[in-house]
Amino acid sequence: MVSDSAYKDLSKPNKKLFKEVLKLYDSKMYKKAFKVAEKITATQPNHSETLAMKALILNTVGRKNEAMKIINLAIMANLGSYTSWNIKGMIERTAKNFESAKQCFSRSAQIENDNQKNFKDLILLELQERDYAGANVSITKLMQKQARNKVYATLYFLINHLNGNYEIAEDFIEQNRDFLMSKMERVEKNEFYLYEATLYRDHGKYDQAIKVLNENRVEIFDKIARNELLAELYIKSGKTGKAIASYEIILDKNPSSTKHYYNLFEAHGIDVNNLDDADREKIIEILNEKIEKHSKLLFLKRFLLNFLNKEEDFRVHFEKYCRHFLTKGIPSLVNDIENTIKTDELKMKVVKETFEKYLESMQKDLTIDGEEQDPMQETFLLFYLAQIRHIEGDYINALELIKECIEQTPTFVEAFQFKAKVLVSLGCSQEAEEAYIEAHSLDTADRFLNAELASYTLKTGKYEEANEIMKRWSLDQSSDKLNTFDLQNAWYEVESGNSHYKYGRHLQAYQMFNYIQKHIVTMHKDMYDLHFYTVRKFNLRTYLNVRSMQDNIRRNIHIKNGMVGYIRIINKFYKKAEHGTDEEKKEFTQWLEDEEAKHAETEPDGWDEYSEPHDPLGAIPDPTGVISLKTIFDSGVAKHMADKCQEFLSYNSNSLELLYYSIPWLLRAKKYTAAISNLKALIEKDPESPRTIYAAVKFRAYFSEEVSGSLKPKQKENIDKAVEEIFGAEEIEAFLIKNTIEKYPNCLNAARYYLKGLQKHLGKVLSKEEFGGVLNTFTQAKEEATLKCSVMPQIEEVKKLISYAPQEAKDELINAADEVYYNFKATLLKEQQE
């Protein structure tokens, strides 16, 4: 940290004082150390190293802003001070500003290039920031100083591997094998050989990787990992017979692994996404052999159902499969087969007919196929049939069946859970919560039931009540409130954010969605502690896997949904800030400033002589999110959001929501090429959707004469070409009408996007009579109020559509929608009570 050069500009008395500062700092006597440092700066105010030590002491006791100001003064006092740059790197690293810290340690390494501790710190930061080229230079210098250090040697070949220098890594391992493997434990040898094979695989040397795995089979005790890698290598090298043998070994040990069955089919040359009759027969033959070998394994019998496409074959196998669930009273039957049947009409028909046949027989004489059965089987058949009706969209009949099931067995927890699910589908959030409370009361200690109850509670907007439920599982029971930030519970934050958004609590919604953005940053920062730890423990494959997991965290469904919610709430604020009236804009700006002042962070002003730099449990940075929200709008919200959208799309290129929401932000940020690319991708992936048509209209309408006039010739050429490809010679309004209300005359969503496009982007408002013509689906929705589908979610769509009605018609139409809504709900609840 402090080099010998730190003393050279000090007077003799101050040298003694500086040594005392270092001693007091090491003893954690920070207040005394700071006072001694002030004595030095009283006589030598511009001594860089003393200023740096003052900054380090302040940073250690939590006075980070003061520390940053003083360390900058120290740097300016002497740009060539190793100590000042090193300490600034430490301060930046404490704040987890790893890129800045890396630059500081790099600068200190240039000043003193023989300090091993500095290079070790620098390598960690370069690994953290994926700067493998820089890490390669740093580790080479460390190896020149201490070539026989096993940790450094391991880092050397690992960094060259990550940097793509495969030959260097391979040669180094081969030349230093005896040294690297000296005093290795058995588990380390296992890891070493598996890693070496992985290195050869990444280099494309499949035969060499196979050789490593086969020659060292005795030393490699992780047989599953060895055979997985072998099978992959055999397929890549064209040796499918050996690949099949490796997968067979894996499946003998773990016959319930779906992933390895699909790998086995691939090794047989079968494309499961494009099956012909011969391929299907081959799969059925393979699975039947496995079923004979593992006759008691239910997984195989269920897995086989995926590939049976003949009605009679499927019926025979399904009846055998479902009888086990009925006899044992297992509620998860339909959940197990849902993905198999919901997109296959034939299989759905067979399953439904089987359940109805069994139910009729049980209700008649308590038998199935002539055999007397336990009366409880009738309850389970009602439960299964209710689930089938729900999959079909027949929510009313599903509710009737589940009510009958509950009447027969009032302690059936799963029946109450499913009743809540049906009620949510019907749009009855409050009644769904009440049903789930009944389920929860039957088993209050079940964590899953508690989590689900919190989810249903959020659907009714009861955020505080949901927090109380979730708090039972929080680490910090001393706090009055649930700290979702420390829990990093992404699904709950998404649910909370959506609940706040639905009920108009926009700042709280932003807070929840912003937490998820912070989690991504936090997960990246937490990786810092893993680099040296995994190398020291020789968990090299684990390190590569965690690194890959972190790189792909944005593909997680909850993280992605959190990003969609983040965009929606920023859109809401953007409309107020940019498209509201002058008064609304002024109110929004004032509101941000007031909230920022109310929640401004304050630093400690005292001294804690025994504190360590840490992030205490419960210390949430910017807890309300208002500071980051203000920063986004002050620094340029369009660029920020455009970059965020593209960042997530690089991992979720098939996400229709992200493609749709990204286009307006890219246009506002003037990233026209990316906007065109995303619009074309959306049209390719979802060409029939009214939402896609609306996105195209919004894109074309954006380029008004004023905007088009400011474009560069090449930009204008690309935009005109894109418009011609999408619209042809068609006028924008004709294109909108043809692809929305004409194409989908009974679709509320199509009508809404038509009206939205017409009003927002073409500047047209329909008359009351014209709007009534568009709203003909409302009459249809009213007539369907007693049919199988839910009218309440339809009414919500109608209300969205009514928001584009002429002002004089809005109240009348909304009252009519509410009448349908409440009549339907009253009828439904009356039926429930009966």
TrEMBL record:
Keywords: Repeat, TPR repeat. It comes from the Eukaryota. SUPFAM superfamilies: TPR-like. It holds the Pfam family NatA_aux_su. GO terms for cellular component: cytoplasm. This is N-terminal acetyltransferase A, auxiliary subunit. It comes from Euplotes crassus.
